[in-house]
Specification:
By secondary structure, the protein is of the alpha/beta class. It has nine helices and five strands, in the order αβαββααβαααβαα. Its EC number is 2.7.4.-.
């Protein structure tokens, strides 16, 4: 997708997401958006664009670490329940309870019994959420093997993104077909009418971001909320306040000025 067109449409969709957020707040709706997919499929960057201009008190990102030893002794869904939204909140899940159907299954982090129990319980759990009034959207970001490997190699050579590479991530290459089978089985059991899966083709990241944002806006039954009139008041006259001398406080060195000096000297 051409960058100028992408940038133009991105801004328009982000503005509409802000409007949707107002409706969520006013109506007391509860929204959960799940972002799943293979490693390097573009989930994180899509979440970043969706949340960029949203109020973090209303829309929050949930990205849980690996379960602790205590977590492993609890009901599997128990660690996710506290992160579900209250009235007027949006939760964007960077991976979710579907870890069990993907990486845990492929890498052997769960037993077959735990895996089978998940496939049975996940649809029940999600029907309960929807029945209680939660708007639940589930997106699978699909990336080709060629593009995934390209993205891994670009991360390898980028010190700002190399942290995104882990042994588990790289197993996506050697276990490509295992992950494919796990995803197919997951869809078979959890693609339910109350909470269907929506697949996002993500070889083109710009296109995938635009598509997921537009789809979210189409699936949440929001409507424009009248904008409250706000007037910035006049600043009252001074009542004699004097700021203490600056040398009494600790100030951050003006690093920006040094950068400007170096840039000037280079010119």
């Amino acid at each position: 997708m051409p960058k100028p067109l992408y940038t133009q449409e991105l801004r328009a969709l982000q503005a509409r997401l802000v409007e949707m957020q107002k409706w969520v707040q006013q109506s007391g709706a509860r929204v959960v958006v799940i972002f799943e997919g293979r490693d390097a499929a573009g989930k994180g960057s899509a979440i970043k664009r969706v949340s960029e201009y949203l109020n973090p008190r209303v829309a929050r990102i949930v990205a849980l670490p690996a379960p602790s030893e205590r977590d492993k002794t609890r009901w599997y869904f128990q660690r996710y329940v506290p992160h579900l939204p209250a009235a007027g909140e949006i939760v964007l899940m960077d991976r979710s309870w579907y870890n069990r159907a993907g990486v845990e299954r492929v890498m052997g982090y769960c037993t077959n019994e735990e895996y089978q129990r998940f496939l049975h319980q996940a649809p029940i759990f999600e029907r309960m959420l929807v029945e209680d009034g939660i708007i639940l959207l589930k997106y699978w970001f699909s990336v080709s093997d060629v593009v995934q490997e390209e993205r891994f190699r670009s991360r390898l050579n980028d010190p700002m993104r190399r942290w995104k590479l882990s042994p588990t991530d790289l197993s996506s290459i050697t276990k490509w077909e295992d992950y494919s089978r796990a995803k197919d089985t997951m869809f078979l059991h959890t693609d339910i009418a109350e909470a269907p899966w929506y697949e996002i083709e993500s070889d083109d990241k710009r296109r995938s971001r635009i598509n997921v944002m537009a789809h979210i806006l189409s699936k949440v039954p929001w409507e424009p909320v009248p904008q409250a009139q706000i007037e910035i008041p006049e600043r009252p006259p001074s009542a004699g306040y004097e700021r203490p001398p600056r040398q009494w406080t600790n100030s951050v060195p003006d690093y920006a000025r040094e950068v400007e000096k170096r840039a000037g000297a280079a010119d």
